[in-house]
Design a protein that fits this description.
Bound molecules: nicotinamide-adenine-dinucleotide
Structural class: alpha/beta
Oligomer: single chain
Number of helices: 11
CATH superfamily of the largest domain: Lactate dehydrogenase/glycoside hydrolase, family 4, C-terminal
Low-confidence stretches: none
Length: 309
């Protein structure tokens, strides 16, 4: 599978490329960036490790060389400033993002290519990509709450001294202020997580608040997220490349599940070679369903502003 990372010279894109290289599953990784020197440097650095890691083609390129890609990952964008909400970034990022979408169209991307949006505000830009590119909803995915979910699981595991990969707990909704935890279906090694020793209501509140603040915490300490976001990007790409049909909290334009339609937001979604294959609607606690609806409303309000801008 050929993957082009637009913005791949930046921290998120290059860390994602490294995660893809370590796994060795995709065959071709192209790094594109407005800063061509940076793209070249990152591609070269990755290429130097190829003999130790995997037999892949890794290079920097341009839109003409990228047009036959199976998957475009868009990580180009401006970083969130400390204390800036993700939605505040929107006005700074939309024009840049539209330019990238237009370049993809002009280059003549394949009609069956998938577009995977990572740049923030990710839900809004995912919705924008689907409409501007005129692609079916299934071909446009956003990272959504993948990173929030990964942080949530890892922090729960750390605090309760559990094995991180056996913690299964979702964050759904907006990748932003209105995200919410889904305790109703959370498990540890197949057992109900809320019954594990230490998983008290106070702990639940505290670990969710820490998760929600994680993005700002990482920005404050090291300038921006990199390794974990790279790992979650690779997780989605591998589900696609290997047609794993895993249920992941990616953002897609909703088609009616949970009463949502037209909004790009994270709900449990089956991900395989053709992109987003289906939404999975399982019963949520009433307060979780209300939180999902509130999150969709917040995103709709913002998207309406974007369309007028
Ligand atoms: N969805 C998530 O969970 C998540 C998590 C972390 C970061 N992000 C977002 O990812 C984006 C990138 O973050 P970063 O830390 O890598 O920033 P960065 O500044 O390190 O990298 C951004 C890169 O985009 C490039 N770029 C800018 N305009 C471009 C254009 N028009 N075409 C091609 N490349 C262009 C820049 O040259 C730069 O190399 C931001 O929008 C950030 O908010 C999303």
């Amino acid at each position: 599978m050929k993957v082009s990372i637009i913005g791949g010279g930046g921290r998120v894109g290059s860390n994602a490329a490294f995660a893809l290289q370590c796994a060795g599953i995709v065959s071709e990784i192209q790094i594109l960036d407005a800063n061509a020197d940076l793209a070249e440097g990152e591609a070269l650095d990755l290429l130097h490790g190829a003999s130790s890691l995997a037999d892949q083609r890794i290079y920097s390129g341009d839109y003409a060389r990228a047009k036959d890609s199976d998957l475009f990952v868009i990580t180009a964008g401006l970083r969130r400033k400390p204390d800036e909400s993700r939605l505040d970034l929107i006005n700074r990022n939309v024009a840049l993002f539209n330019g990238i979408l237009d370049s993809l169209k002009a280059a003549g991307m394949r009609r069956d290519a998938l577009v995977f949006v990572v740049s923030n505000p990710v839900d809004i830009l995912t919705q924008l990509a689907a409409s501007r590119l005129g692609l079916p909803w299934s071909q446009v995915l956003g990272l959504g709450t993948m990173l929030d979910t990964a942080r949530f699981r890892s922090l729960i595991a750390q605090e309760l001294k559990l094995a991180p990969t056996q913690v299964k707990a979702l964050i759904l909704g907006e990748h932003g202020d209105s995200m919410f935890p889904v305790w109703s279906s959370a498990t540890y090694a197949g057992l109900p997580l809320v019954r594990m020793p230490g998983c008290t209501p106070a702990f639940q509140t505290q670990v969710f608040e820490r998760t929600k603040g994680s993005g700002a915490e990482v920005i404050r300490r090291k300038g921006g997220a990199g390794w974990a976001v790279g790992a979650t990007i690779a997780e989605v790409i591998h589900a696609i490349a290997l047609d794993r049909r895993q249920v992941l909290p990616v953002a897609t334009v909703q088609q009616g599940a949970y009463g949502l339609r037209g909004t790009a937001i994270s709900v449990p979604t089956v991900v395989g070679r053709a992109g987003a294959l289906a939404h999975v609607e399982v019963e949520l606690w009433p307060k979780e369903l209300q939180a999902l609806q509130a999150s969709a409303k917040a995103l709709n309000d913002t998207f309406a502003k974007v369309k007028r801008a």
